[in-house]
Design brief:
Shape: globular
Radius of gyration: 14 Å
Number of strands: 8
Protein name: HAD family hydrolase
CATH superfamily: HAD superfamily/HAD-like
Order of helices and strands: EEEHEHEHEHEEH
Strand content: 15-25%
CATH topology: Rossmann fold
Distance between the termini: 16 Å
Organism: Candidatus Woesebacteria bacterium RIFCSPLOWO2_01_FULL_39_10
Helix content: 25-40%
InterPro entries: HAD-like_hydrolase, HAD-like_sf, HAD_2, HAD_sf
GO molecular function: metal ion binding; phosphatase activity
CATH architecture: 3-Layer(aba) Sandwich
Keywords: Hydrolase, Magnesium, Metal-binding
CATH class: Alpha Beta
Length: 147
């Protein structure tokens, strides 16, 4: 049973071209926050920290990490902090080689959000293969059995 979700930020919840959250992102987060612990993991530096703060999404997450590169330990730290098992975690992101691969390595449920830039991406490595594919925020909610 899923108890927590870690989201990628850029191109999953946030549109870097327009510098605003995607339409429906806040609604999705507010809906999921009623049921799940929420984490946000993103690559970047101080500018990414500022972007997250200015996005209006920051205060809705229980855990936020901005790292140079995503790796399994970042996800395991989240699990340890909130006392969850890997199978109780869903990882949602647009990039197969980062968040999806890390989620798979630790045994989490993985959801590839491919509405935006990842539309041209293909699964070329078994370790990058997501358990679920979502093409909209509604798909994410359906996968998680949330109305």
């Amino acid at each position: 049973m899923i108890k927590a979700i870690i989201f990628d930020f850029n191109r999953t919840l946030f549109d870097p071209l327009r510098n605003v959250p995607f339409t429906g992102a806040l609604e999705l987060i507010l809906n999921l926050k009623k049921i799940f612990r929420l984490g946000l993991v993103s690559t970047g530096g101080e500018s990414r920290v500022a972007t997250i703060s200015e996005s209006g999404l920051r205060e809705h997450f229980d855990y936020i990490r901005v790292v140079e590169q995503k790796n399994e330990q970042v996800f395991l730290d989240f699990l340890k902090r909130f006392n969850f098992e890997p199978q109780e975690l869903a990882v949602v992101g647009d990039y197969l080689g980062d968040e999806i691969a890390c989620g798979n390595k630790i045994g989490a449920v993985t959801i590839w959000y491919k509405e935006w830039a990842a539309l041209t991406m293909k699964v070329e490595n078994e370790g990058h293969k997501p358990q679920f594919i979502a093409e909209s925020y509604k798909d994410i909610q359906k996968i998680l059995s949330v109305k």
